[in-house]
Amino acid sequence: MSMQVKMPKLGMTMEEGKLLGWARKEKDRVRKGEVLLTIESDKEEEYAKIRSAGRTADPAPAEPAAAETAPGRFPGASAPRDGAVRATPAAREVARQKGVDLSTVAGTGPQGRITREDVLAAALETGAPPASPARLVATAVGGKESFKELAGEEPMTGMRSAISRNMMESLRTSAQMTAFSEWDVTAFLRLRSLINADEGKTGFKATVPGMMVALLAKVLREMPVFNASVEGGRILYWRNVNIGVAVALPDGLVVPVIHDADRKSLAEIQEELSGRIERARAKKFLPGDLSGGTFTLTNLGSYGGEWETIIINPPEVAILGIGKATRKPVAEGDHVVIREMMPVSFTVDHRLIDGETSGRFRKRLKELVENPGLLWTAAVPQSGGNIAGE
Amino acid sequence: MRGNGKRVVVIGGGPGGYPAAIRAAQSGLDVVLIDRGGLGGTCLHRGCIPTKLLLKESADYRKAAAFPAAGTGIAYPPADLAGMMRRKEQVLGQLERGTAGLLRKNGVRVIAGTASFLDPSRVLVGETGEIVESPAFIVATGSSPSRLPVEGSDLPGVADSDAALSLERVPRAVAIIGGGVIGLEFAQMFRNLGAEVTIVEMLPRLLASEDGDVSAAIRGALESSGIAVRTGATVERIGKMRGGLGVDFREGGVIRRTDAELVLVAVGRKPSFEGLNPVKAGLNPEKGAIRVNGRMETDIPGIYAVGDAAGGLMLAHKATMEGECAAQNAAGIPTVASYAAIPRVVYTDPEVACVGLTEAEARKRHAHVRVGKFPFSMSGRAILEGAPHGFAKVIAEGETGCVLGVAIVGRQAAQAIGEASLAVRLEATVGDLADLVHPHPTFSEALREAALDADGRAIHMPPAPKSAAVV
Ligand SMILES: Cc1cc2nc3c(=O)[nH]c(=O)nc-3n(C[C@H](O)[C@H](O)[C@H](O)COP(=O)(O)OP(=O)(O)OC[C@H]3O[C@@H](n4cnc5c(N)ncnc54)[C@H](O)[C@@H]3O)c2cc1C
Asked: Which pLDDT value is given to residue B129?
């Protein structure tokens, strides 16, 4: 049977130990308490004692792992005295059964005690002791702490854990399919410059996300299936077109929502958007700032991102990600011209939306982005819209 | 704003809120507590304390009333419920003043009034018009009784637990709708006072979330005291009858009726945000409760929710644990709530006290489960006290013997469960419990015997037959 022997820690301050020599030969039978090897610490010379009976196996001193033991560091090593390790009785029992060295396990239980779960996790991570060829490794077992050192730790909380929950929920409950494309935004950006040149008179500035919200709102009215949710086996179509715009904060992400974007002018959308983003950054939300979204837009370009497999903000069924526009050579007829090209990622919930439908949405939105003048003609609601009853 | 960011406002002064306020103050925060219904919350005014007090007083009455029957031939006077209620008011007053004193000595500013969110960083106190601003809030607004959606549930004589705690006279007959914790405690209290009591429960057994043997043991004990128990019985309507009310329920396809002077609806409680305006803070209580993570944080940064308002087990000690957890996080001490060992107690006689997993849950989660059980009918202490009802049961993981759960039905189970909670929390093994020396004669010895049984070495129980004869 193979056995792992951990370098004992000789006193609280010992950081490294040197292997001076083996007292036993390969395949020797040893008893608890017998001298197995001699090590030297920065303080004194000591013997590592066998803590349980067993047979030593191929010492294989030429192996790098064993060679390392001489001057190596042992961050995982701690006091060998059993009483010094705080572990629950059940954890000790599991450790005995699974052959896990408790001093290599970090405790998450009451007052930092090592729990059953901690030992089970450690056992999984280390795997069962190797069957053969056996090797005597005089280093800290438990793998993880031998090779990487913990620099700090904190519970996942607040916004991070809300995001984590939401995103896992999203991937767990929907069938996500992402399409990537590249759109020519030369005209779109020219329109933005025109609007902004007029700021003196109109009093507002247009941004790419703001203009995109305005265009999206029209297309969402045309194709209500993208302005829907799947809940409990039913498809819910929303009367309001409430577009969320993902905003990165230092510790996470929030999604302020522009309600009824389809009924607002670009100026109104821009004003609301900047107000909400400002409040989000200051973490001073107003009621409704973050709730009621039916579709999400995320601006990957804000940190230079291009295409990403963006994740739907549940219970919505689609999300659009726009990347950073760059000048690129593209073919126009037989000529190569320079155009502003924008990478676009579009994720849909395949439970509700098929590839073809997703393609139609992208085609329509692309048409509007590349020819923003079409905005004048867009948006005839198909059904279920709030104009239908009027 | 005072205290530049080192501030927290606690909304609600129940067992979730007031310990949170004290813990936050101990941690160096500037604390304001806003409460509109009297410090101590539901627990002190309409829950844990008054029900336990009335259970105790009514049990004393029953004992006293039993003496004449035992030989003197003198009839005992009827129970003085009004007197018990006066004593209740005294006790509540004393405890409430104690709570107020604790808060004051910890430097917590208490505002009496209803807090409503204006936005995620401000609340308005309705009664005073004061606007309180803070970077952090702990919502501990508690819960209120659920209503029964059947015809007649608004008739006079139909009461929820709040109303039943201020009766002046013992009703002749009481129908209790709901066989959960609150229903059982009230059933026993009214029975002790001499009322005829019927429990009507929709589910197939009482205390349906506990194991079947627990349900059966408490049912047996209640029935032997004269309480009628109808399970699998759905209430269809409540109607006026000559001399009181009639409760019609469907049981196995047949409609039956029980008559009562008082109908107590004890069908559960739901989180309550009355007046709070959580939506203005960006909180959207789903399914009634505010969603929180392990640090009691809601989706809105800086806002925490604890106790009944955050859902889960509706128990005072669970609310307190969560309140202290939220307070520490608000003070910048990262803390995660721990739900592994929260005892669940019903204060009837015999008491029902459970902690950790039920046997059914344990069998679902673990491949190998060991169960040890010891009946109180074999306990010296139980026999000498004339309280042989119930058992202690230890549920352990098969391989390691790690104690996963304990259920005790029996007198003083609530006290004995403390030891079991420690065992579950610290992952003691059945061996640890069995090797612990217990004082003799006590009820707690039953727990040791159950642990011994799970380890296959019970002393005070005959060994199981080695092999069953196969014919
Ligand atoms: C009949 C009965 C018996 C019970 N027995 C037990 C028992 O034996 N053991 C046990 O553990 N549990 C028992 N419970 C449950 C226990 O009472 C609750 O779980 C516990 O009180 C919850 O504490 P909390 O702080 O969350 O809420 P609560 O105790 O309900 O306190 C909430 C407080 O907030 C105040 N409030 C609400 N809204 C506002 C607002 N907008 N502004 C200001 N203040 C506000 C309320 O007035 C109240 O004072 C019992 C409950 C009932 C009904």
From this structure: 93
The maximal CA–CA distance of chain B, rounded, in angstroms, is: 84
State pTM to two decimals.
Answer: 0.64
Task: Please classify residue B154 by burial: count the beta carbons closer than 10 Å to its beta carbon, then call 0-12 exposed, 13-18 middle and 19+ buried.
Answer: exposed
pLDDT tens-digit map of A339-363: 999 999 999 999 999 999 999 999 9
Task: Give the pairing of strands A234-237 and A228-231.
Answer: antiparallel
Q: Which residue in A257, A159, A279, A288 sits closest to B277, CA to CA?
A: A288
Q: Which residue of B has its CA nearest to A87?
A: B426
Q: For B401, which of A93, A115, A162 is closest by C-beta distance?
A: A93
Angle, helix B316-330 to helix B17-26, in steps of 10 degrees? 30
Most confident range (mean pLDDT) of A319-333, B8-22, B280-294 is: B8-22
**CA-CA distances (angstroms) from residue B23 to B31, B331, B353?**
10, 9, 28
Phi-psi region of B221 (alpha: psi -120 to 50; beta: other; left: phi over 0): alpha
Which structure tokens are listed for B397? Answer: 């993981």
Q: How remote is the CA of residue B48 from the centroid of ligand 1, in Å?
A: 9
**ipTM confidence:** 0.71
Report which residue type is found at B404: L
Q: Is B328 on the interface with A (CB under 8 A)?
A: no
- DSSP assignment string, B115-174: EEEEETTEEEETTT--EEE-S-EEE---EEEPPP-SBTTTSTTEE-HHHHTT-SS--SEE
Q: What single DSSP character describes residue B297? A: B
Q: Would you name the residues of B annotated as active-site residues?
A: 440
Q: What is the pLDDT of residues B293-342, one digit of tens each?
A: 989 999 899 999 999 999 999 999 999 999 999 999 999 988 889 898 99
Q: Quick check: A48 and A21 in contact, CB under 8 A? A: no
